[in-house]
Amino acid sequence: MEWFQIPLGPLQTNCYILAQENGKCLIVDPGEESKKLIDYIQNKKLQPEAVVLTHAHFDHIGAVDQVREHYSIPVYVHEKEADWLTDPALNGSQYFMGGQHIKGKPADHFFSSEGDIAVGSFTFAVFETPGHSPGSVSLYFKDHGVAVAGDALFKGSIGRTDLPGGDHQQLLNSIHNKLLVLPEETSVLPGHGPVTTVGDEMDGNPYLNGF
Fold it and tell me: What are the Metallo-beta-lactamase domain coordinates in residue numbering (predicted)?
């Protein structure tokens, strides 16, 4: 499996394309700039099978409907954020986008618990990693040593917890109990900024010291 990081929108939210050798791919967190994203996928000659959301804040969902409709594919999100795609107050666009509200269609499928899941031709583990938002999840591709962490864990930092539904201690618990227990060489693909590893964050992330 290959993965490609595509920063999108004014907040440079990382969208990830996870692709198999046969060209099938998943789209994780298409935050904005749908044309740029679709052109990228077309140029790579990939065939999307689904959109998967680590959470449903506005900067991670802005291109969901355009991508879903272009490829006729389903959208997955945690059930605790089932209403966020359709509600600008819940997804934050009402407060942070200068009057530009994001109000799309509901997701097609909902994560309700942790564990292995099959989405199209992909199989991966879903970890509930709340704290940044109530329905935040991380996607772990064990055979490939990759964890897509959304806005839970960044290189040298952690997700903000001052938004509605955020909880600082819950986020620290999520990181320590779900992400830092993975093999140290695991690549952590964050929602913003550069890729890191579990080992690097265990050793050098100042927000995790003294937990």
Answer: 12-192
Residue 122: predicted pLDDT? 97
Q: What is the pLDDT of residue 16?
A: 98
Question: Which of 33, 35, 132, 16 lies closest to 84, judged by CA?
Answer: 132
Q: What is the pLDDT of residues 44-95, one digit of tens each?
A: 999 999 999 999 999 999 999 999 999 999 999 999 999 999 999 999 988 8
CA distance 143 to 47: 21
Write down the pTM of the prediction: 0.96
Q: Are 5 and 27 in contact (CB under 8 A)?
A: no
| Collapsed DSSP state (helix, strand, coil) of residue 183 | coil
Tokens of 175: 């990181």
Tokens of 16: 């990830």
Write out the E strands in the chain. 2-8, 13-19, 24-28, 47-52, 75-78, 109-111, 115-119, 122-128, 137-141, 146-150, 153-154, 157-158, 187-190, 196-197
Domain map (residue ranges) of the chain: 2-204
Domain 2-204 falls in which CATH fold?
Metallo-beta-lactamase; Chain A (3.60.15)
